[in-house]
# Entry
Amino acid sequence: MPDLPEVERFESSNGAQIFRLPMRVFPRYIAYAHLVVHDGRLTLVDVGSGLGESHADLLRGLEAVRTEYNLPATLEALDRIIITHGHIDHFGGLRYVREHAAQAGVAVHELARPVLIRHAERVLVTGKGMEDFLRRAGVPEDHRDRLLAMFMFGKRAFPPVRVDRTLRDGDLLDDTFRVIHVPGHAPGLVMLQIGDVLLTADHILPGTSVALAPESLMPYTGLSHYIESLEKAERVEGVRLALGGHEWPVRDYYAVARRTREAALEKIERVLDCCDQPRTIYEIARLIYDTLEGYIELLKLEQTGARIEYLNQRGLVIVDNLEALEQEHSPALRYRRV
Ligand SMILES: [Zn+2]
Ligand SMILES: [Zn+2]
# Structure
């Protein structure tokens, strides 16, 4: 288990206090919730996974705000809960938090709402899509079943949670949060601007490029949305400090945003280079990544699939074995550069 970082406090140009609360959301993986105190209102942005230490860490973070900053930071006192996107490490703990935060209305982007109110449906539908994706990616059959089982295990269903308010791009929520919709990593992903502070969730992170999947698996994900959303992120004005859902606070937001977009385009270029002869997504992933094991392999296949999809949408790579597509229901597709 990694050590839990300290709670940190920041202030925005419009007088909000923002507390960064660390939580161990998965083994060896830390995420941050943010408690925002503005005009006497308490808002919690994201709630952790609800797994392992996550709840206890969240409560410990609130306690630190109470004792060190003398603020009434309890779940019971929350006025609002905002979920930045429908990934477990950000919303999995919502059921529990909601039980204690009786007065807090839950707000999410309209495209994240289905995950919260009916997680089981999302899991099953995506699972079926994943089976088809792995087949077309050319993953050998026995291996495919293993990956699929892993995918379904990693997506254990969460009980439905009520949503009180849906968000759209450009909304100003509670006179505090400017909503910036940035689909790509997830369909209903939002960044929240509070004065000169930007909560970037998983869209812009300083140390890693985020997980991406093809849009054929889930609408509003995929590289086209992701890159458009990175361009949009660079156009947000007046950001002095960016706080993501993971990693460390970012003081050079615009440089990090630009670097993230450039890295995304370079990775697409790398996949294009692998299409000098007809190859499946499975073969391309094996060329690019040295070791592919466990859940990482699934993630890398999804990323490679997302990049091939982007190139194929633009006619830069084409399906080489069209005759197989004509004859079989769901054959492995080979892509080649035009
Ligand atoms: Zn995420
Ligand atoms: Zn995350």
Remarks:
- The chain has two domains: 8-118+160-267, 122-154+277-337.
- The chain is about 40% helix and 20% strand.
- Residues 85, 87, 185-186, 202 surround zinc ion (ligand 1) (CB under 6 Å).
